[in-house]
Amino acid sequence: MNNNNNTYDVVIVGGGAAGLSAALVLGRARRRVAVIDAGAPRNAPAAHMQGFLSRDGMPPAELMAAARAEVTGYGVDVINGTVVGVGPSFTVRLGSGDTVQGRRLLVTTGVSDELPDIPGVRERWGRDLLHCPYCHGWEVRDQPVGVLGTNPGSVLDAQLVRQWSDDVIYFAHTHDPSMTEEAELEARGITVVRGEVERLLIDNDHLTGVELADGRIVPRTAVFIRPINTPHPDGLLASLGCDLDAAGFAVVDGTGKTSTNGVWAAGNVVDPRAQVITSAGAGSASAIAINADLVQEDIAAAVSCHHT
Question: Model pTM greater than 0.85?
Answer without folding.
Answer: yes
